[in-house]
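To the team - S-adenosylmethionine complex, inputs and output below.
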Amino acid sequence: MTAAVWTASVLTLFPEMFPGPLAASLAGRSLERGDWVLETVDIREFAGNKHRTVDDAPFGGGAGMVMKPDVIDAALTSVREKRAAAGAEDRLIYLTPRGRLLDQRLVGALSEASGVVLLCGRYEGVDQRVIEAHGMEEVSLGDFVLSGGEPAALALIDAVVRLLPGVMGNQESAEEESFGEPGLLEYPHYTRPAEWCGRDGVSRAVPEVLVSGDHARVRQWRRAEAERITRERRPDLWRRRPGREDET
Ligand SMILES: C[S@@+](CC[C@H](N)C(=O)[O-])C[C@H]1O[C@@H](n2cnc3c(N)ncnc32)[C@H](O)[C@@H]1O
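Output:
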């Protein structure tokens, strides 16, 4: 049995950062409607001593502090027990630059789970033993270092929530957009006016095919542009796209 409503449980030292931007627009409206649920857990509540200490110096020396395994374990166990009692089998994720890169395929898989438990690190990160003990997946937002896992959690939740049933009005747009089924970046977009002059004084018309009314030509042009842009900007994606054997 899985819990009915997709739930993000976020373990953080900064619960005031949530829902933050997730309270606005598509995510915010769907949160209000109850299409998904956000639970924030203040890690500090699980610090055993009166100073509510959550970190300690790293074994082996070096700069910075490390989040304590006993505190994180208590917070994780509490969330996991609550979610298990609701019948959920959530994905357990520690956000870290050392993790596998978040991509649209993983986002899609996460949207099909009952929910996610997201552990946000601070300082130098979390004692590795607690990550192992809970069998957590390690996921990175990108090849850069944030000061904490919270912005990564916000981005991950935003990306997942828009795929949940009923959240995005036009489901087709999720299938067609970048990293969708053909494995390409999306084609460029244009809207009115058809002719527009920017600050550089150059007048630019939208590509003629887009105002031709010929839907087959429009589809062809969009596909060709998506392929060109992917080839030029992301040769890694171009090489990995489905059906690549017909092209080099
Ligand atoms: C200052 S960072 C620690 C960086 C760590 N010492 C390292 O060099 O890999 C503090 C926390 O921010 C989060 N974080 C930083 N960069 C991230 C990224 N690219 N993706 C996901 N989380 C990240 C992690 O939770 C991490 O524990």
